[in-house]
Every structure is written in structure tokens, then in C-alpha cells.
Amino acid sequence: MQQFWSVPRITRRAWKVWHRNIVVFFRTWKVNFFPPLIEAFLYLFAIGLGIGSYVREIEGIPYVNFIAPAILAISVMNSAFFECTYGSYVRMYYQKSFDAMIATPLSIEDVIAGELLWGATRSLLYVIIMLPVLAAFGVISLPLSLLAIPLAFLGGLMFAGIAMCFTAVTPSIDTLNYPSFLLITPMALFSGTFFPVTLMPVLFQYIALALLPLTHIVAIMRMLTLPALSGMLVLHLVWILIVTVIFCIIAINLMRKRLIV
Amino acid sequence: MGATIPDIIEAIHLEKTFGSIKAVDGISFAVKKGEVFGFLGPNGAGKTSTMKIIACVSPRTSGTIRVFGMDPDISPAEIKQRLGVVPQETNLDPDFTCYGNLFTYSRYFDIPPDKAQKKADELLEFVQLSEKRDVTVEKLSGGMKRRLILARALVNDPDLLILDEPTIGLDPQARHLIWERLKLLQAQGNTIVLTTHYLDEAERLCDRLVIMDNGKILVEGSPSDLVKKYVGKEIVEVEKTADVLSCLERNHISFEITGDTVQIATESSRDVARLLFDHCSPHKVLTRSATLEDVFLKLAGRKLRE
Is the pLDDT of residue B3 over 70? Predict the structure, then answer.
């Protein structure tokens, strides 16, 4: 049990792994920059304008403004989570990249830390791409919404850590579908994204607040984009920080257990 | 030791267990600076496990090992900074070109970019892949991939090169090219440790080698000494017939049966052949010099390993 909680020895070599991934990302930037742009437009049109024309307002806020922060938050979750599940698994299992890296001065802790940092960076990049679209539609406030960028990195790191735990224990790439469908999809729907958490039964509200990481990202995101700052921001932030630290540590230790035999 | 040059690798009672399986069972060996040292053995003998311990990617269960005088458990990064590793599996980075693979790998060793660029082109030249410089690695043949991996293992000018089955699955031309390059590295004074189950490869390359089986070292020595000591100079092979067998027994000549041939190890194949022709009415007789393969089969047995 102790081996899951020991604080991993990470060196700044982790950034070399991060650097490798970002080089590949920008070399194929056309395929990588397109999805977040399209995603922003799709959500805005289908849900924002489509459903929005019936719903019009939620809690006195135009519906499309209500879901704009959710679009950002879901993108933060998806980009880091899928990068550190399928992406990392492919690099680990099919490409054997981690094996190649740990034959150099990099340790497995450095490699996984680099992957987590990269997952978080991907969330950050996606939010940077989406922000101008949302700003152009006038559905987010500026300049406070720019704080969504650092929040994207922190939230991305949290989802990267959670994702890497699944990657560390999954028997094959197919079984990564379970967390995607059983965790990520429900979270995208029930975390105060497209309707307020308060519409759900009280018990579910507690569950969403206690267990669904996305709830906290959406909440802060919304405070920034509306804007509607409140003291709750600190509580959400603390929740995210604690969960991020816990899952990143467990992820690195689980990965070491899987790969170092 | 005193004032002499310390060994590059020194292992004493090295052990590695996986659950109840002893992959490496208390082996001791030393590799000197500038020599090519081979690990031979059938599949599952513990060769790769030993390589992984040396390469600091798999911790030993017990025993001691020092690489460049350092402990892999304590100073892995310092040791790995000076190692070049050619793994058994091809693990080139498919997201990069040949050049990109070498350059990216250089970064992991903290090699400055301008130096890394120069080195990458030099190494592509060295393994004869300059023409494929900007080709993605997926488009390379198996032999080219192995050569690129060899080049990658050299980006940091390693003090010790570890090769796990360097020519596995290659055609004769590709194998010869790799051998030639390794010979060149050897001539430049590099220390090389390699595993192989190609015995001609070991005979050709190794100054000294050990034969392993079931996690243990069976014998250690130079290829020629081992052949001399365990088999003899020459081998006479004769087709197995009842006449030949009874004739050999009558003349008190020891032999070994493999399939439908009988093998006789001897100091003088000419005498044995003459005796066969004069007294045993053999069908087919073949004489050849003894090789490491004979030593290997004698020590490790002929049973198939899975």
C-alpha cells in the first residue's frame, strides 16, 4: 500500500518528455488544431442556439452564455483524459517509447510526469484555441475569462492524473473504453454543464460535488466567464488541487509498478 | 584492485526472481574495459534479465553489481548517461524521421542541439542510412531499423554498449553490415556487452563469453578456448546406421547421436574417417572443425526451448 503513496522522485528531465510530445503536436498542428475549433462551433450552434432558442435563460443568464464555460471545461477534461489514456497507452504499449526513454538518463518517474504535464498542456492549448471563438460570439466576458487558461492547465493535470491511473492498470487498449463511457460521458452531462446541478435530487447534487471532478472545473469556469466571482472559488480550487496531487502521485507509482519489473 | 583499471561491470552473486521463477540465479562475472563480452544461451536463460539489470531498468533481487563502479539502484541516471543500449525489441519513435529519432534521443542525454545535429548526421553515415535521413521510420526495412537503433545507441558516445540480440531476424547482408560496424567500434576501444543465440555471431565478435542456462553461467572463456576445452578440434559426422553404431562401440569411440547423424568429436578427423572407411562401411562422412555451436549444444542440450 505504501508504494502507491510514496512521493516519486521527479527531476526536471520530465520536461524533455513533454518537449518531445509538444514537438510532435505542432508538427501535425493542422489535425490537432481543427477539433477544438469545430467542437466549439458545434456546441455553440447545436446546444447554445438550438436548445437555447427554447430555453432562452437559466437563472437569468442567456442559455448560450450559461453553457460557454461548460464547453471549455469539457474540452479541458477530454483533451487531457484522452491524451493520457489512449495516447499514452499507444506510446507505452505499441510504440515502446517509454522503454526507449528509460534507457537514457530519464527515469520512469520523469517519463510519466512528462506525459502528465503534456496532457495538461494539451488542455491549455485547446482552451487557448476555443477562447477566441467564444469571445467572437460574445458569450464570455473579457478579460477575466483569460484566467480560463491557467485553470485549463490545472484541470488538465487533474484529468491527466486520473487518466494515467486507468492507463496503468488497463489490461488492453479496449478496456480503456470503460472509463470513457462510464466516467467521462456521464460527467460531461451531469456536472452542471448544460443544466445547473441544483436541478438534480439533493443526493445527486452531493455526489456531483463530492466525486465528479468536472463539477468543480465547470463551477470556476462559469465564475470567470459570466463573470460571477464568489468565495466558493477557493473551495473548488482546493478540491481540485488535492485531487490533482493525489491522482498524479498514484498514477506515477502505478506506472512504475507496471513497467519496472 | 589497487592501481589497476577498474572493471566496467562487476557482478557478484547477481539474482533476479519473478515470483517463484529465478531468471538470474546467482551469477558472477566481470567485463573489462575495451573487450567484447557475450552472453549466450537458449531462450529463457536469463540473458535479457541480466542486460536489463546492467542497463538500470530492472532492479536486481539480490547480489551486487557495479557499472563504472556505481550501483544501478543508487545512481541510475549517472550510469545511463554513459550507456548505449540496443534493445531486443525495435522501439524507434514512429512520430519522427531517422534524423529526428537520433536528434530527439540526444535531447534525453542533455546533448547541446548543435552538437546533436552534427552527431546525428555522422551516425546516419556510419550505419549507411544517410539516404534515409528524412524518411519516417515506419518506411524502413527490418535491417535498416536495427541499424538506426545501433546509431541511436551511439548518440552519447557511450563508454559501454549493451546489445540485446543485435541482429535478430535479419538477412545475411544486414547481419554482416552490423557485424562490420561493431568490429569497427571494437577496434576503436569500445566496451561492448551483447547477448545472442547466433553462435557464429558470438564466435565472430566476442573476446570472451559466458554460456548461460536456467539463470546460471555454465562456462566462461574465449570462444576458441571453449571449443578446445569442451569439444576438441574437429567433428566427424556420419550417417546413422546399425553397422556404424556397433562398429564405433567396438572400437571404443565415443559419439553423440543427433537425429539421423552420428557426431564424433576428435583431435584428428583424418584418423577417425580412415577407421570408419576401413571398418564400418559408412554411407556418408563429413569432417569439419568444431564450433561454438557444438559447445553450446553439448552444454545446454538439444532439447527445444520455448
Answer: no
- Phi first, then psi, for residue B284 (nearest 5°) are -125, 135
Q: Residues of B with CB below 8 A from A20's CB?
A: 93, 104, 107
The third-level CATH classification (topology) of the domain covering B233-289 is Alpha-Beta Plaits (3.30.70)
Give me A95's grid cell: 510504440
**Preferred mutation among B108, B145, B152 to probe A, highest tally of A CBs within 10 A:** B108
| Sequence spans of domains, chain B | 9-227, 233-289
- pLDDT bin (cut points 50, 70, 90) of residue B80 is very high
Which CATH code is given to the segment(s) B9-227?
A: 3.40.50.300
Using CA atoms, how far residue B14 sits from A130, A158, A258, B39, B163, in Å, is: 56, 41, 23, 15, 19
Q: How many Cβ atoms sit within 10 Å of the Cβ of residue A28?
A: 10
Contact B57 A99 (CB under 8 A): yes
For A125, counting Cβ atoms within 10 Å of its Cβ (0-12 exposed, 13-18 middle, 19+ buried), the class is buried
pLDDT(B306) > 60: no
Q: What does residue B220 show for φ and ψ, rounded to 5 degrees?
A: -140, 140
* ipTM over 0.85 threshold: yes
Q: Measured between CB atoms, does A76 come within 8 Å of chain B?
A: no
CB contact under 8 A, B104 and A20: yes
B110 touches chain A (CB under 8 A): yes
| Grid cell listed for A91 | 506510446
B73 touches chain A (CB under 8 A): no
Return the C-alpha cell found at A25: 503536436
Please give the Cα distance from B270 to B276 (Å, whole number). Answer: 10
Total Cβ atoms within 10 A of residue B128? 14
